[in-house]
Amino acid sequence: MILAIGLRRAAGAATALAILVVAWSARAADLTIADFVGRFSGEAHAEADDRFFVATLRDVEVEIAREGDGFRLAWSTLIYDDSGTPRRRDNLLHFLAAAKPGEFRTAETLEPFSGRPTAWAYVAGNALTVDVMAILPDGTYELQTYVRELAGDVMTLRFVRIAPGRPDLVVTGRLTRHPANEGG
Prior knowledge:
alpha+beta; Lipocalin; 2 helices
């Protein structure tokens, strides 16, 4: 009888400990934009969903810096064609804090048919998600979603582009944070 009570108490304590560990882990995984600050670089693999199934290799660099209550996101991509010749794309977005913690928006509003994008971002768990949308002059749209998950100094990237009449594009990659004192 005493052994049974002791076993129940031990099981109860183990359950309570497991609940605390899970709760702590879930809370520890809730990152803020400050956790993403830094310069990351690595490689990504792109696949276009068309009848020829085009796959390309890309070198990717991402830099995130605080700006007031918001942040600046800059990224560069070197896209290699079949002959190995690179083509460079550079992007820069400035985000302002939105109404809720962990949510951000660009200052630009969406203007239909202008072709100029608007963007919003949010941090949930260990991921920074950025959505960029434009309504193009012909009335179609393009939606790009970038999910950057962070585990220590390693960032995994998943980019998806959806645009009617164009092949969907999916890019996945792995980037590593550079030391803060490394120039660049």
